[in-house]
Amino acid sequence: MGERSPPPAGRRTRLVSSLVLGQRACEVALDPERGALEWTEQPQPRGGRESCAVPISEIIAVEETEIDKKQCNSGKWQKMAKPHAFTASRPKHLLVYINPYGGKKQGEKIYEQKVAPLFSLASISTDVIVTERANHARDNLLEVNLEKYDGVVCVGGDGMFNEVMHGLIGRTQKDSGIDQNNPKAPLVQCNIRIGIIPAGSTDCVCYSTVGINDPVTSALHIIVGDTQPLDVSSVHHHDTLLKYFVSLLGYGFYGDILKDSEGKRWMGPVRYDLSGFKTFLSHHYYEGTISLLPASHAVGSPRDKKHCRSGCHICKQSKQRLEIEQKKNGGEIKGDDEGEWKVIRGKFLAINIANISCACPRSPKGLAPAAHLADGSSDLILVRKCSRFNFLRYLIRHTNRDDQFDFSFVEVYRIKKFQFTSKHLEDGDCDAKKMQKNRFGHFCRDHPACCCIPPSSTWNCDGETLDCSTIEVTVHCQLMKLFARGIERNSTLEAVQRQLC
């Protein structure tokens, strides 16, 4: 029988009822003041009571069952007429884009069988668009009326998320009158959240922000209205915007893998393994000049082993600093050029910039284990020219407990701005077509008789190729928001990482 405890003045009513849960008699309390549903097992003959609680914000639906119809009474709790009464941040209307071709081509099936029923159960209405071509979602977001939506959901891999991200950022800057081609332009934050339903080859962004690439888990984060800010970096070539990225910008090894795999799309995800093996054997290095602006505001370092987790205090500090800056500048996020630039020259097997850890099932620690989701900085990883054996040792350390940065040929920096110029461009020696012909197969790079032109690599920008080797990168603090809460402690990824540490 339900009963009400008389509330003190100004407090909402606390509801208490005796129910049977899993064949056990329990006292169940709905406490709006604490925002929790609690149940306590009734005292057993030998004493002792077990109590559990769950936040109201994480309750999606309640199913009523009857153990004995004869004992049924009319005092049962009824389903709430307003499912969003306790959770103002929950979405009510979502725009959903499905990539039917990504990964194993299971996007539509995953959404219809695993996600759509949950959205329906949570009283969330959706407008679903199945994409028919590359950049379909991006182009649509530049024109669609976004005011009627509480969020945008992408079903697919990192490429699909990339499309949606570019569409939302582009739309926000367009509506705000911001010139995206200006590298120093203060970008405006996107207020609409993005939800990621993983259905791709690697699902790196989802894995690094949720801790697992599971469609149901991601759907639940969307339903309960979780919010996770995310840093985004822009890539410019002179005064032209090339791309935005949130996970990896790689030159050399990862750029060559992507470039070689482009002609093998018919092979599916296995193409990356083949191209990776081929690129490893080629062992190309690239010469150039790097200029970096250290992130003086950032707390910690790329090697401190302090992983970004749900409720991360470092990201919270960045949010507070950002809010103060926005108040000062009327809502704009202005670029920060303060600090002394550092210049590095050399020959590199790989130049990687990681906004997030870039964790995935194959590399649970990721390329940058201590990178944060929303601290306004990126981790720059430089792998200088070394032997194939040493480079293999470096790659293997991404899969075990050893420190992948503990090599004399590896350097890592926490940065907020970055510039790169290839050596052949500095010398005015730029015949791109000729260099592409000599891309693979040279194992005599240092032999005096070999007259090979020093090649230029391709930038791998979140899985998209950028052919301009000279670039400028700027980190934009918390430019986007996801339906996520960061990696929770004791999550699947957390457990795997503990085994590796």
UniProtKB/TrEMBL annotation:
PANTHER family: CERAMIDE KINASE, SPHINGOSINE KINASE. One of its GO terms (cellular component) is membrane. It comes from Podarcis muralis. This is Ceramide kinase. Residues 89-239 form the DAGKc domain. SUPFAM superfamilies: NAD kinase/diacylglycerol kinase-like (SSF111331). One of its GO terms (molecular function) is ceramide kinase activity. InterPro entries: ATP-NAD_kinase_N, CERK_C, CERK_PH, Diacylglycerol_kinase_cat_dom, Lipid_Phosphate_FormReg, NAD/diacylglycerol_kinase_sf. PROSITE patterns: DAGK. One of its GO terms (biological process) is ceramide metabolic process. It comes from the Eukaryota.
